[in-house]
Design brief:
single chain, Jelly Rolls, six-stranded antiparallel beta sheet, four-stranded mixed beta sheet, 5 helices
Length: 262
């Protein structure tokens, strides 16, 4: 059965039978980068597993032509990602996990705002990639849902439905960079998603970390960040560019991050 879709009102498309992208005439965007299975093996529960290859494709720096200069000025970057259907051994298709590097222009790690466009997703995040991962969250999301990962947290995106591909958009900082070292040293994140015979996901702890508790939940509205749950997130930027400035200037809402709940 084809997966449900959400219209982000942006004009970025991906044909159902591949991991490529097309753009409406008033939209700019690059050719996709493809993430190969070999690139993420070190963070999988079974690094020798078989699975779709490439695992996903990504286009960074997408937007409407009229907004290009404004996006650059505000150090904001919009990306779109398509995940393949299938499994990586016993795990669903997923990213390896990373922490956002410190962005030179603002001097800190930056958050990320996700919006699911197609399929079912889980955004997994943990406070640190140290031996003690701190609080751990798995947010189960459907098309139209938005999820915020706060600055400095280790996180990964999971395709929760092995029978269908998954697609999402994300607001990021323009000077984004990824830090993998601690995650790879722990052979992955603190919890592994495992697909059972019923095609449902259960969670298995990674013994490389101290024992932690995993909170599984649905997305929330994030009123403290001014997100409009009824408006596609690119449309919110188009109507009010200031409303997304916290993505590239997280210190402007520093009071939000201390006890942040995903």
């Amino acid at each position: 059965m084809p997966s449900e879709k959400f219209d982000p009102k942006l004009g970025v498309h991906s044909p159902a039978d591949d991991l490529l992208f097309t753009y409406d005439k008033d939209v700019f965007g690059p050719q996709p980068e493809f993430r190969a299975l070999k690139d993420i093996r070190r963070s999988l529960r079974n690094p020798e597993c078989e699975g779709p290859d490439p695992v996903y494709s990504i286009v960074m720096d997408v937007g409407r032509n009229e907004h290009r200069e404004e996006l650059e000025r505000r150090m904001l970057l919009f990306g779109v990602v398509v995940y393949a259907a299938g499994q990586l051994g016993e795990e669903p298709v997923r990213s390896q996990g990373h922490i956002h590097a410190i962005a030179p222009h603002c001097g800190c790690s930056t958050p990320e705002l996700f919006e699911i466009w197609e399929g079912r997703a889980i955004i997994y995040a943990q406070e640190t990639a140290n031996d003690d991962p701190g609080r751990c969250f798995a947010v189960e999301a459907n098309p139209g849902d938005k999820i915020v990962v706060p600055p400095g947290w280790a996180h990964a995106v999971i395709n929760a439905d092995p029978d269908n591909r998954m697609m999402f958009g994300a607001w990021c900082d323009r000077q984004y960079g990824f830090v993998y070292d601690q995650i790879r040293a722990h052979h992955g994140l603190a919890w592994f998603p495992i697909l059972g015979a019923d095609r449902k996901i259960r969670w298995e702890i990674n013994p490389s970390y101290r024992r932690s508790k995993l909170s599984i939940r649905r997305p929330r509205a994030y009123p403290e960040l001014g997100l409009d749950p009824n408006q596609p997130m690119y449309e919110q930027f188009a109507a009010d560019p200031d409303s997304m400035q916290w993505v590239s200037q997280p210190a402007s809402v520093s009071n939000v991050w201390a006890d942040f709940e995903m």
